[in-house]
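Query structure, 114 tokens:
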């Protein structure tokens, strides 16, 4: 969105419910976020966060599981998977989590995450 368009938009309409709670710079970010189409950025960010979680906090299995669940949901939405395909993807990730948990148990790491 161009700066001129943003300026016009700000002066033409009242601030939305959410915009009223944001600073001016955050309202700019919200406008930019509104221009993004699709879920590619969100999927990439979730993949990055899951990777970071595995590197920095492999013992926090609950947060890792939550991140993977969100990633699956984003991928499901992005690809508009059929119910069976989404179920297969969920089962595959569950298998990965079980394997990851087994690996943690074998090295004596508590998988409680707390």
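Result returned for the query:
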């Amino acid at each position: 969105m161009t700066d001129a368009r943003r300026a016009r938009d700000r002066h033409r309409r009242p601030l939305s419910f959410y915009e009223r709670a944001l600073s001016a710079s955050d309202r700019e970010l919200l406008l930019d976020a509104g221009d993004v189409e699709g879920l590619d950025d969100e999927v990439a960010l979730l993949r990055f966060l899951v990777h970071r979680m595995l590197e920095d906090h492999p013992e926090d299995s609950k947060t890792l599981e939550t991140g993977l669940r969100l990633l699956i949901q984003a991928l499901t939405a992005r690809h508009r998977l059929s119910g069976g395909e989404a179920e297969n993807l969920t089962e595959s990730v569950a298998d990965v989590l079980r394997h990851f948990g087994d690996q943690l148990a074998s090295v004596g790491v508590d998988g409680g995450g707390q």
